[in-house]
Each structure stands twice: as C-alpha cells, then as structure tokens.
Design a protein that fits this description.
alpha+beta; Pdz3 Domain; six-stranded antiparallel sheet; 20 strands; elongated
C-alpha cells in the first residue's frame, strides 16, 4: 500500500510537472522572442527554494513541483502598466496572440513527439484491433444480449461508421451511454441490423455494451501438479471448447469454471493444429497473482499483441492520426457533458491523474509515456477553451479587440477575469469531488450525489 502511494505521488509529480513546465516554456520562449520583459520563470509553485537571475528574469525552483509559471510585465489586468515597449500590453495583438497560443501548442506538440518516439521504439496494440470486428462473447443481461447479438457476429457498421475495428467500437460505445445506436452485423451470410443502447457502468458512468472481441484461449503457461498439467495440456495449446461450448474469448474460461463448481470438464483443444480432448476436475485454491479462492485448473492465457517498430515518417503519421482522433473525442466528451448526455464522473482530477500515473509507472515506462501524451493533449486542448483566465480566454478577448479595433476597458477585463476564475474554481471543486468519490468504497456511493 505504501509503495502504491509513493509511486502515485512520484509519478504525478513527474507527469504534471513536465506537462505544465513545457506549457509555460512555450509562453516564455514566445515572450522572449518578441522582447516582452519576463520577471519570473518558475519550476513549481509557492515559496522560492533557490535559483538565479539572468538579465531581468528570475529563474527559480519553488517548493511545490507541480508545474510552473511565467510572470510577464503587464500581463495581468490587475498589473500596473507604464506603457513601456517591453510590456505585454504594449505589443501588437498578433504577438500577444502568439504568446498566448504557444503554451497549448507546446503541449500538443509534446503529445505528438512522445507518441512518435514511442512508436519508433515499439508500436504495440492488441491483435484483436486489427482485422474485422468479430464478437467473441456476449454477457448475459447486457445491452448487447438484449439487442440479440451473438458470438461470431461480424460488426460491419455502427451508426455512420462502416467496417469499424474494435478500437472504433470501444470509443463509440463508451462515449454514448444511454444513447440508441444502430448496429449492423453479418451472421451466416445475412446482414442484420439491431438497436444497441450502451448502459452507463462503473464509477465513471461510461457506456458499456457487454460484448467482447475474439481472443483465442491459447495457453501461455501450465502450472505443474494441477489439473491441466495432469490432463496433459501444454503451453501453446488452444482451448476451443469446454463441455461443448465454444470458447472465443479466453476470459470467459474462469466464469465457466466457477459456474461448474468443481465438476468434471471436457476440454477440446488444438495442438499444432490437431484436435485433442482432455477430461479434468478443477480444484479450489488461490494463485500468486490472485489471492481469492476460486476453482482453478492451473493455466495462464496469452494476450496476443501486435508489436513492431515504425520508421520516423510512419511513426509521425500514426502519432498525428492518434492525436487527431483523441482531440476530436475530447471535444465530443465535453459537448456531451454540457448537454447532459454523459456524466461528469467521466472527468479525472489530480487524484485520478495520480492514480493513473502510478499504475502506468508500475507497468512500464512506455505506458507512462503514452499516458503523458494523453494528458499533455488534454491539457493543451483544455487551455484553448474560451474561459477567461485560461489561454483560450486571452485568445478570445484578443480576437474581439481585433474585430472592434480597440482594447476593451480594463475594468471590464477585470470583471470577466473574476467570473472566469470563479467558473474555473467550480470545475476544480467538481473534479476533485469526483476523485474523492471514486476512491471511496462502493457501499458509500448511494449516500453521495
């Protein structure tokens, strides 16, 4: 437990620290390029620990290492301005626009750069995401079961999306809770069209269909002195049926074992393409990776993945495509939250980011880099929203002033900034509340809104 807490804290310090520092570096470089006086470039917030002064800028490291900030002369509406040519407001609007937009731009460029480097090192995804979207398992009492979908169905259309892969399906389903979706499948040479309504599920209330892809039950390992080994099963074998029921999705095997309650199983499997049959009786016990007592046969299954290295051009192209897809998804999520088509529980705050960062860091540096890219993209896009106090609010005011060809009154700007700050604080309170609720035991959820 202590290890988890420590890794969560260290990971979120690294992730948010780098994200916000890169963001502020964008503002700093643009300001320096246009000759704007920068009083402070800080890594971290709070009291100054140490640093140095070069020219008119104090480069410092502060107590709280979660990001940083840049303080420019005359940047804030409450600052005293002298009209000096090196103040922010003395510069042409197009230069102020560039300074404001460079922070989010740096976050977006970082997301693209991280994924490009990651794909050049290793481009990896589950094997089921390539090729046709075949259903391997449908949960009982799920929206997919209610709509009549069956294992073996090939999904050829969902809403307007033709021939989707499983990543497309997952994105569309999670982003449409309680929304009717038209889905067409091919079954035995016929095309059938059904209406699917994903069910909000879990603490995030994201949509869930209850269908799963084809994931062959290929054995990665067989534990000695347990039923599978005693029955002659070996690593590399593929279980194709249990008691006559086809297995197209290996996580279903554990469910079958628990429902069978220790009775003898007839397992049909393939070895080097040749069919074989074994009979075995599960035993009840625990495993090193799962301390819960369950019916077990002593096998571990392969998660088939596609892994390859991409050249720079292909890696950059894939990175751009991935970031574009998720950028559009961010705007879609935000729009649906405001239209109350999705729950605000889908939002993650600092506690949630710490949890996700810790999980990624404990898995691999590649997972952490992928998460950093996603957070950096989110941060860049969020800062472009036209909310006063954010960069997007500054950009909006500059566009308005450019249209009317004069600066707005400073008192109006101050009032707008105050409203924007209050709105931002409400958002902060909401996401932190969400984070706290998600960390509580589920039995307390019914007492909370």
């Amino acid at each position: 437990m202590l290890y988890v807490v420590i890794t969560n804290i260290l990971a979120v310090v690294i992730v948010l620290g780098v994200m916000i520092l890169i963001h502020e570096l964008g503002h700093f470089v643009a300001a320096k390029y246009f000759g704007i006086r920068v009083h402070v470039f800080s890594f971290g917030f709070g009291p100054r620990l140490f640093g140095f002064k070069y020219g008119e800028t104090d480069y410092r490291i502060c107590v709280l290492p979660l990001g940083g900030y840049v303080k420019m002369a005359g940047e804030n509406v409450t600052d005293e301005v002298s009209g000096s040519e090196d103040e922010f407001l003395s510069k042409p609007r197009w230069q102020r626009f560039v300074v404001a937009v460079m922070g989010p731009a740096m976050n977006i460029l970082l997301a693209i750069g991280l994924l490009t480097g990651l794909y050049m090192y290793r481009y990896q995804k589950p094997a089921y995401q390539e090729g046709p979207a075949l259903i391997g398992w449908v949960e009982n009492d799920s929206p997919a079961a209610a709509a009549g979908f069956q294992p073996g169905d090939r999904i050829v259309r969902i809403n307007e999306r033709e021939n989707p892969n499983w990543q497309d399906l997952e994105i569309l389903v999670v982003s449409n809770p309680d929304q009717a979706m038209e889905v067409s499948v091919e079954r035995n040479g016929e095309t059938l069209t059904q209406t699917l309504k994903p069910r909000p599920q879990g603490r995030t209330q994201l949509g869930s269909a209850g269908w799963y892809p084809v994931m062959p039950a290929k054995l990665q390992a067989v534990e000695p002195d347990l039923p599978a080994a005693d029955a002659g099963l070996q690593a590399g074998d593929e279980i194709v049926s249990i008691n006559g029921a086809p297995i197209h999705f290996w996580p279903k095997v554990s469910e079958i074992l628990q429902a069978n309650e220790g009775k003898v199983l007839e397992i049909a499997y393939l070895r080097d393409g040749q069919p074989n049959t074994a009979h075995l009786t599960p035993v009840r016990g625990t495993a090193e990776s799962d301390p819960e007592s369950k019916w077990r046969i002593g096998v571990a299954f392969q998660n088939e993945v596609i892994s390859r290295q991409l050249g720079f051009a292909d890696a950059l192209s894939e990175s751009l495509a991935t970031n574009q897809k998720f950028a559009l998804l961010i705007f879609e999520f935000v729009g649906k939250i405001f239209r109350q088509e999705m729950s605000v529980r889908t939002l993650e705050g600092p506690i949630g980011i710490a949890r996700l960062s810790g999980q990624a860091a404990r898995q691999s540096w590649a997972d952490l880099a992928s998460l950093m890219a996603a957070i950096s993209l989110n941060l860049g896009i969020f800062n472009l929203f036209p909310i006063p106090v954010l960069d997007g609010g500054v950009i909006l005011l500059l566009l308005i002033e450019g249209t009317i060809r004069r600066d707005l009154d400073r008192r109006w700007k101050e009032r707008i900034t105050q409203v924007g700050f209050a709105f931002l604080m409400l958002i902060a309170v909401m996401v932190i509340y969400n984070d706290i609720v998600k960390t509580l035991p589920e039995r307390f959820e019914r007492f909370l809104p």
